[in-house]
Amino acid sequence: MKKIFLIAALLVFVSLTPRTFAYTISGAELQAIAMDALENALAERGETRRHEIFFTQSAPDIRLPEGVIDLKPHLPAQISYVSLTPVRVSIFVGGRLQRTVSFTANVKVYDAVIVANHDLRIEVPVTAEDFRLAEVPIDGRNEYVKDVSEVVGLVPHRFIRGGSPVTRGYFQQPIAVNSGQRVNIIINYNGIQATARGIVMTRGRIGALVKVKNETSEKILTARVVDSQTVEVTF
Q: What's this model's pTM, rounded to 2 decimal places?
């Protein structure tokens, strides 16, 4: 019974004894570890463009007991260029986890890409004067246009606000033929090519399929739009 009482008293004494700390790791050191992890992750994915990394909050100073200190950062599988990226730094002392500190990082990557000089309306063909080259924050998930010749003559299929970077996916071919329009039909049949006149029955863009009526045979054919005056039928 005395032995049990002695052990209990010793436990109480140990719990009341102030814990001694051998080292204090600063919040700046923890953020530096997180920053290095983010920089390494960007380098591993081949990111060479100018970029900036901001933390949304400061880290606290952490007091640690005596022992060998090991700091291990943890990142998500993908670093976002448009939303916050969570970062964790686990603190081990003597091989035992003492604490995990969490951050959120704002990663901005910049590139010289084509941006709209002004608002671009749906279905209005664009020219080189509608764009300029500028270094702007970009979204790593998209491929932005760097050569204006890629989009000149096309039309936006969505509203594009002035100052916005553009991707090839924002544009499409303009309407080339309209319903009721007379066109030339190129007919390919077993290696033989013939021509006929026809009337378009559905409007379409270059490369799209439309219905066209052969004026001679009055047959309804499915044709691919070649340009504003020509469609092609292949049997």
A: 0.66
